[in-house]
Amino acid sequence: MFKRLALNYLRKWAQKEERKPLVLRGARQVGKTTLVKMFADDFDHYIYLNLEEADNAKLFAADSTFDDLLAGIFFRANLTADSHRTLIFIDEIQNEPKAVQALRYFYERRPDLYVIAAGSLLESLMGRHISFPVGRVEYMALHPCTFTEFLSAIGEEALACQIEKIAVPQSLHSYTLELFKKYMIIGGLPEVVANYAQHRDMVRLNGVFNSLLSGYRDDVEKYADKPREQDTIRYILNYGWTSAAHRIQFAKFTNTSFKSADVSNAFRTLEKALLLELVYPLTSTSFPILPDLKKSPKLFWLDTGLVNYVAGMQEELLFTTDSDELWNGDIAEHSVAQELLGATTTFGEKRMFWVRDARNSQAEVDFVLRHKSHLLPIEVKTGSNSKLRSLHLFMEESKENIALRLWNGPMTSDVITRSDGRPFTLYNIPLYYAGHLYEWIRQARNATI
User: Is-contact 117 24, C-beta < 8 A?
Assistant: First the structure.
């Protein structure tokens, strides 16, 4: 077990005066149950109810009053109903719909209790079989481990603090970059990170990855009811990883015989399960934010380490002697995408990228970061000679004063003049700060944003 940044959010939630039951949302194997167990150390009493266990599910399934339900819960835990500062965790809540509905009564009648709910297949069932009481619960998203969480797990807490402060000494730049390379290979799934932290052996991680992937594949029947959709989902889970950080077309996806509608539906199902995200591009450089759903989306998977494993890229990345080979291409972009999403606990947060809305234009900016009323372009380019044509085209249309490049070099900046004479500043930021760009913006002294 190692510290997760989401603990800070949980502690803030616990301090709220108008606290509602909290529903943890995230894909399987991102550490929801472990996180709550760590959080439970802050409480006098902890009641864990796993509704996969029949006796626990029966507590909620019985036709009884809320007071009777509560008495049964505390009796099973050998506690009194007025026990001081008690955390109740209802795990696998999707197994009993009445437990979902009971959350409203925890909010209305026992706001002094701290109630958290989660479920391994919750996402795929929401909207079809499960509906949470509107206005009576709040949500928190949990993602795979960030780079700083990875550093803390392997004993590099001091370096993690320096990254969070955007204060890594230049003398540690190469060392930090090498650790980020390891993170890019390993990814952020908690079981994988914990295994590496204990054994420091990347090769033995293959067994862990295989077990995790088998679990996702075994859930196919739970994600979809129709055999054809199940077949399409299996195909995507077997072969879709090589399209990570690429724009995809449903009709031509990996040259299959599946119909476009079948592929689209299968992707939507996996997206609801939070195993992947389809990101549609913006075509404007200013507000409002309106993704163009007619254009092809970009595919981001749950975890870069899993992408490396399934796509068979780990050995190449592990044994390369030229560091730039690792940074070039899709792995760096996918890792940045993972860091951007991992920086937030807000459920439904979407990553964004930009394409130029012009005939035959290939211009594409890797990411667009929303900061207050600003849309800032981000390119993930690592070589010193990398071209930034798309970013320059974005800035030609934009009123912003800064643009960002994430790369493997040190922190630098350049003032660039647009064709109409307007200047902007291009900031070159080390890749390992990708998850802390908002802190970088806060600190930026010369950025007029």
Answer: yes
